[in-house]
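INTERNAL TRANSFER SHEET
From: sequence group
To: structure group
Subject: Biotin-dependent carboxyltransferase

Please process the attached sequence and return the structure record in the designated field. Keep the field labels unchanged so the import script can parse them.
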Amino acid sequence: MTHLVVDAPGALTLVEDLGRPGFAHLGVAGSGALDRGALALANRLVGNPDGAAGLEILIGGFRATFSGDAWFAVAGAWGRARLGGRPVAPYTAARARAGDVLELDPAERGIRYLLAVRGGIDEPPVLGSRSRDTLAGLGPEPVVAGRVLELGPEPATSVPLIDQEAAFPPPADHLTLGLLPGPRADWFTDAARARLFDDAWRCSASTDRIGARLEGPTLDRAVPGELPSEATVPGSIQVSTSGQPTILLADRPVTGGYPVIAIVAPASLDAVAQLRPGQEVRFRHA
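Return from structure group:
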């Protein structure tokens, strides 16, 4: 059976599928790929179900060797990809032969590559998912050099005849995200609610799979004191005591005590996965 031998994992490579919903009552977040659309599309390009497990590769610097023939596709971030030294186009199904080496250079647009291989990455599921939850420590361990990743059996569906989907690179300058009203918007001053939409924000270098931390003006509270912990959803924008917002992502805590001023609309959430440190973020009403 074909497998993938990881020679260099880059900054951080994780096995991710579309997550493990339905366990919030146990304190377990849904987790899964941050750019769900990119993983689903890469899977479709190689004939996998949308939710087959693939690799989420942060920044790049990734290198792996195929032990046998296999179809694969790279989506999400855009950068230079090579198979056996030959360029590989993004969002395109490509065929690897035994001994071929796949290399992903540091991303030029976006920050997370999603790599799908026909058959999917065959890791033991935990609570029904093969995803790594970096906060809870559930799922497969982060990929290290020398890791041998087994592939699952080929699906019954064939590789699509049209092997390239219309796709566009993540934006290189600013990103505009649609927002829905938050459950605790009334905990903030009128000026703070206006500032959220009127001012520009910057993605912090401390952003991770738990949350995208933003830097900008202070969002002042109208209601002092602590908020009892309440449920969170992906895209919740919590505002800490510093007045700085954080967009909660897939590996977030399922409850939180900071007030949520707004929620990133589901249609905009995949784009947050590709934010680069220092990139400008603006908000609009969804």
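Handover comment: The first helix runs from residue 36 to 45. Residues 136 and 156 are 34 Å apart (CA to CA).
Transfer complete.
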